[in-house]
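request received
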Amino acid sequence: MSKFGGSNNKKEVPGVNSGSLSDIVFMLLFFFMVTTQMRETENKVQVQIPEASEVVKLERKDLSSYINIGTPIRSLQAQYGTDARIQLNDSFKTKEDIRDFVASEREAMNEGDRPLMTVCIRADKDVRMGIITDVKQELRRCSALKIMYTARKPAE
Amino acid sequence: MGKKKTPAINSSSTADIAFLLLCYFLMTTTMGSHTGLARRLPPIPDQNQQVEDQKINRRNIIVVRINSSDKILAGSEPIDIRFLKERVKEFLDNPNNDPTLPEKEMKMIEGFREVPVSKGVISLQNDRGTSYAAYIAVQNELVKAVNELRDEFARANFGKPYSRLTEDEQGWVKKAVPQNISEAEPKDVKGSK
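response:
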């Protein structure tokens, strides 16, 4: 059925050269290695980050600690319910534990970097402000005054 | 003997290996969500230090309240979030020196010149029932208002948008158009109907 010199049916179609496929995949791999970072903690709360157009970049990632606030993920809802909870490191905590958390995070930093510590509040957009106000008050009490409300740029 | 070719190493499986690695990294890492709205919390007032109400002139303060059904109140009238930015800009800028809007103070900025600096303060209050999304949206509008004023100032004085100024110039502009957003002490906010 071929258009040109149709009689030669025995001619094999040459296989696609897949030698460069690995190069492409490696490039993808490097892209992801550079743009992402290792997940230190397992998320135990669902967080849908709110959108804000005026966001700024965090300057020093290594000097930031995270407070996650949201409803527990599906598999943990049977155990912990669906009320918004605070997650510090790997477990659910109450607001009284924030003091210890901030102290230990501070301890882990260089002396000179401690005033630059930023606490990122990663809260779900449906969370009520009550819990966040409590967290903020607690942070003020242990004088971790630099905070950041994690938000992302809305898609254009 | 010499004509015998060395067989090429079959390299079709390197792609599979690379794919495995790729999948591994996709699973174990996160895309950084390292952006956000930076804020400074006010330090907690000392217990034994009498809370002397900082006497801020009434005209210098605008109170933005968000109630538990995410309705916004700027000053004393309810306002839609779309108009909040303009309202705040007008408040901070006070182009006609309206006596009900914040006063300005001539301030010397080192390395630059003397400029009038608005004394306006935005006080943000929220209810415990306010949703976080609404709170962030309002914060965002406030920051946007300040950023636009900075941009206008930069254009008027340097003929360039704020983002293209040098670091020194940005510092001056920041001093000339300060971002005074105070997150008030949580109060027992009255029930909102």
